[in-house]
Amino acid sequence: MRKQIVVLKGALGLAVVAVLALAVIVAPVILRVSSVELHQLAVALGQGLYVAIGLILCAIFEAFNLLRRIARGTAFSTESVKALGWIKWSAYGVTLTFTAVLPLIYLWADGEDAPGLLLFALILTAAALVVGVFANILEQLLLSVVVMKRENELMVWL
């Protein structure tokens, strides 16, 4: 179990590096390479991208906390349920942010003649929604386990 947690923490660390690289490298490039007519559009896209990056980093932080609780053996607690709630709402926030900027991405892709951009944005939006729904299901499942655990702790065994 310890090895799997270390591997998952390593994967989350790589995800943090990738997200921060996106924030430091890709977002400024979007602003630089956009044409003059599309500059205001690129600024709005950059703002949406930074909001999504913040939400993704929040979800990764809570995933680290969840892995730490699993390693300590305290996974079945209300804190873990709260962490899954944060992950869920962060994923829903990313979905909402990407959905809000999809019309801008369409205009940008149309202006730059890059139809793959819109498909990529749709895939990212769907992936964030899937993560949110999965976190919601896990949150409900973990909550029911925590409730059962509390009920069992209150039982008197004869």
UniProtKB/TrEMBL annotation:
Organism superkingdom: Bacteria
Keyword Membrane: yes
UniProt KW keywords: Membrane, Transmembrane, Transmembrane helix
Transmembrane domains' residue ranges: 12-31, 43-68, 89-109, 115-138
InterPro entries, per the entry: DUF2975
Protein name: DUF2975 domain-containing protein
